[in-house]
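Hello,

Our lab assistant flagged a job as stuck in the queue for most of the afternoon. It eventually completed. Since we weren't sure the result was trustworthy after the delay, we are filing this so someone can double-check. Below is the sequence as submitted and the structure that was eventually returned. Let us know if re-running is recommended.
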Amino acid sequence: MKIVIKSIPLALLVLALSINVSAQQRANRNMQAPKQNEGMMHQRMMNMLDLNDEQSQKVAVIHTNGEKSMLTFTTKIAEKKARLQTLVTADNYDSKAVNKVITEISELQKDRMVTKYAHRQEIRELLTDAQRVKFDGFHLRMQRMNGMNGMHNMRGNQNRR
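-- returned structure --
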């Protein structure tokens, strides 16, 4: 009987550790390959739209150019955030420099959004009315999902940690 009573806390500890490990694995899986997930989402959307060959080729070019632009913005924003981190952890806090970098980050994020929606509009212009409805619905659902997950706070298609 004593052995059973002594083994209960041990079993609870093992259970708690296994739950913790499981949660960490799920979190890592969700953050592991955001670009891969974005690629799958793009492919799913393209399949759903049932594009003709000409549309597919044009969308591919627009998408590639958009990805290049987003990568440039992502890199610049990451550099600015690193600079900001350096400034806010410095021994001598320089509020003017911090504010300047914050403004630069905000401008880059704004420019990224403008570019993103310009690319989206370029694609919309290639679509038929029926395809536009599907395209817009897809993006609306994605925004809702990302909003619920808290992942679309300008981290969404940018630098996921």
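-- support follow-up --
The delay was a queue issue, not a problem with the job. The result is valid. The chain is about 85% helix and 0% strand. The chain has a mean pLDDT of 80.
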